[in-house]
UniProtKB/TrEMBL annotation:
One term under GO cellular component: cell outer membrane
InterPro entries: SusD_RagB_dom, TPR-like_helical_dom_sf
Similarity field: Belongs to the SusD family.
Name of the molecule in the record: SusD family protein
Superkingdom of the source species: Bacteria
Species in which this protein is naturally found: Algoriphagus locisalis
Residues covered by the RagB/SusD domain: 465-592
UniProt KW Acetylation keyword: no
SUPFAM superfamilies: TPR-like (SSF48452)
Major localization class: membrane
UniProt entry keywords in alphabetical sequence: Cell outer membrane, Membrane, Signal
Places the protein is found: Cell outer membrane
Length: 592
């Protein structure tokens, strides 16, 4: 019996994988007909024979997604370009990196910006791997290996997912199904049609039982919902989006399928980002980092955390990096929403207190780092847990002695003190105080400035918590699905339906009843945009949402550029140079 193949898939030859390729080679490998002679990565899943061929084809593709979503690759690009996050030149010593983060935040990037360039490199490399895997699996199916059928559908879906990232960033997609083909660059409606056809070709064929670490039916439906919701922007990235009713109907159709598909909103919001989140019933698609994969990254965890904070006393050498902070504008949106009530008391998504400071130690009046030897409490090393959500003001944590050892009491319990600022304080020793204000001035750029994102748990099961993690990186979850459906309903005039979806989402975060967000009384696009920020912050989605809601040309801290051309990033100069032998193949985006 012949195994069914989507009509748009044909196969010519096999390709294996090399661990690292120079940038020019990556570009040519994906854009042109180059055949790659590479060795297989040590990323295969368990199995022998046909199963090993299948796992050896798909594992390098899923594995490379971790590189795409590194803090200094696509995650940083999305966050720092938005009104959610800012990364100054910390203390005049850290995180300048050629000015790439500052330029992206101010929307003043150029085609040589390496944050943009690295995102292009890893997205196109991942696409190259997906094409190769698709080709290999197609041959396996043709040769009767039925185990390759569903992984083949997964690779078609992953290609579409990666192409949607390229569409979000540069307004283009790459159509390529075989390694001996030259990629075809598609933009606008052609790109939307291609993405739609790819996803529709597998949505009713792909398994619905794959776990969140693999593409499954509901993940494909989520991508279709994203595609239809953003298609107005994709068709005309520089104009005023025309949200077609038929597109919104499709968003509602696919989000309905997912909402009725067995997923459940997590009562404790921060359980979504804990060590055991692979089994959380809200998560639809994630980067699986368990077991042998726990050597994978925890950059989303530690990138924003103070460099003077030790997140896990079991690993004394670990610390944060004092990088990205929340913009005052983003934090102010929480204050404006809740008025006289502190958002930490009103919304379980804003803050979870895990470092429980005894009442008699909370008042630091007259206490400072030079005379606080007795101002501590103790916990077992494995019981110390950082606060989660938005970290503000003075923070507490373990302290080291002069030999770099974690300070403990006579029973071996860890002493927890106010954390001393050793990175920017100079001669004036003081505590780390995550101030509201952070900007590009000398004072605003000090290591302590800005409230911090502490959304992900520092892993208890990985070898250390700052290079490695067992916490899955969440890419698609049910909370976003409810927001997409609410937006589609609102854009069709169904305010009541949109309000019901948003209130379902808000009131579901009820594990801490006193902090459960109250239902809203009304909804409009501005309120919905605000709600998307409260629900999805630090998940790499803010920039795309800003563009769709017409907020990307607004001004915020240290950003005043209002050029609509900056909705898309420049195509990296290295890519244009690499394709210079094909006249007109890669055309720079307007404004660069």
């Amino acid at each position: 019996m012949r195994i069914h193949l989507p009509e748009n898939i044909k196969y010519m030859k096999t390709i294996s994988f090399r661990k690292l390729l120079p940038t020019a080679a990556l570009l040519l490998a994906f854009l042109s007909c180059t055949t790659l002679e590479e060795e297989v990565l040590d990323e295969s899943l368990t199995g022998t024979g046909q199963a090993e061929i299948v796992s050896g084809s798909i594992a390098p593709v899923y594995g490379m997604l971790r590189q795409v979503w590194l803090h200094t690759v696509n995650f940083g690009l999305q966050e720092v370009a938005s009104d959610e996050a800012i990364l100054p030149y910390r203390g005049g010593t850290d995180w300048f990196d050629g000015g790439k983060f500052i330029a992206v935040h101010q929307h003043l990037m150029t085609p040589t910006n390496s944050l943009v360039g690295d995102s292009w490199t890893y997205i196109t490399l991942s696409l190259s791997r997906a094409v190769a895997a698709e080709e290999q699996l197609g041959l396996e199916v043709e040769n009767g290996n039925s185990n390759a059928q569903n992984p083949l559908y997964e690779m078609v879906a992953i290609k579409a997912y990666l192409n949607m990232l390229a569409m979000d960033n540069w307004g283009l997609v790459f159509r390529k199904d075989r390694s001996d083909q030259q990629s075809e660059i598609l933009r606008g409606q052609e790109a939307v049609d291609y993405l739609e056809s790819e996803l529709l070709s597998v949505v009713n064929l792909i398994s619905s039982s794959n776990g969140p670490g693999r593409m499954n039916k509901h993940a494909v439906e989520a991508l279709l919902a994203r595609l239809y919701l953003n298609s107005a922007v994709y068709r005309d990235p520089y104009g005023t989006p025309n949200f077609r009713p038929e597109d919104m109907d499709k968003v509602i159709e696919y989000t309905n399928n997912i909402i009725n598909g067995g997923y459940a909103l997590s009562p404790e919001y921060f359980d979504l980002f804990n060590d055991d989140n692979n089994s959380n019933p809200e998560i639809i698609f994630s980067l699986d980092q368990r077991g042998v994969l726990q050597t994978e990254h925890s950059r989303w965890q530690y990138w924003s955390i103070s460099g003077d904070q030790v997140p896990r006393p079991e690993f004394p050498s670990t610390r944060g990096t004092d990088a990205v902070a929340a913009t005052p504008d983003f934090i102010q949106s929480w204050y404006d929403a809740y008025g006289d009530v502190d958002p930490a008391d009103a919304d379980a998504r804003f803050f979870q207190e895990n470092t429980i400071i005894p009442e008699n130690l909370r008042d630091l009046t007259g206490v400072n780092p030079t005379n606080d030897e007795d101002h501590f409490y103790t916990v077992e090393a494995t019981e110390f847990e950082m606060d989660r959500g938005i970290l503000r003001n003075i923070i507490w944590g373990p302290r080291k002695d002069g030999n770099g050892n974690i300070m403990t009491d006579e029973n071996g319990k860890v002493k927890i003190y106010p954390v001393i600022n050793r990175r920017s304080s100079g001669a004036d020793i003081r505590y780390v105080d995550h101030t509201f204000q952070v900007d590009f001035t000398n004072e605003g750029s000090l290591h302590n400035t800005g409230h911090r994102f502490s959304k992900y748990q520092f892993s208890r099961t990985a070898p250390n918590c700052c290079s490695n993690s067992s916490v899955d990186i969440v890419l698609i979850r049910l909370g976003e699905i409810y927001l997409m459906r609410a937006e589609a309903k609102l854009r069709k005039g169904d305010n009541a339906g949109a309000l019901a979806d948003v209130n379902t989402l808000r009131t579901s975060r009820n594990a801490r009843p006193e902090q459960t967000p109250a239902p809203l009384n009304s909804i409009d696009l501005d309120i919905l945009f605000r709600e998307s920020g409260f629900e999805l912050y630090w998940e790499g989605l803010r920039r795309v949402n800003q563009i769709r809601f017409g907020k990307y040309e607004d001004s915020w801290t240290e950003k005043n550029d209002s050029d609509v051309n900056k909705r898309l990033f420049p195509i990296p100069q290295q890519a244009i140079d690499g394709a210079s032998n094909i006249p007109g193949f890669l055309v720079q985006n307007p404004g660069y």
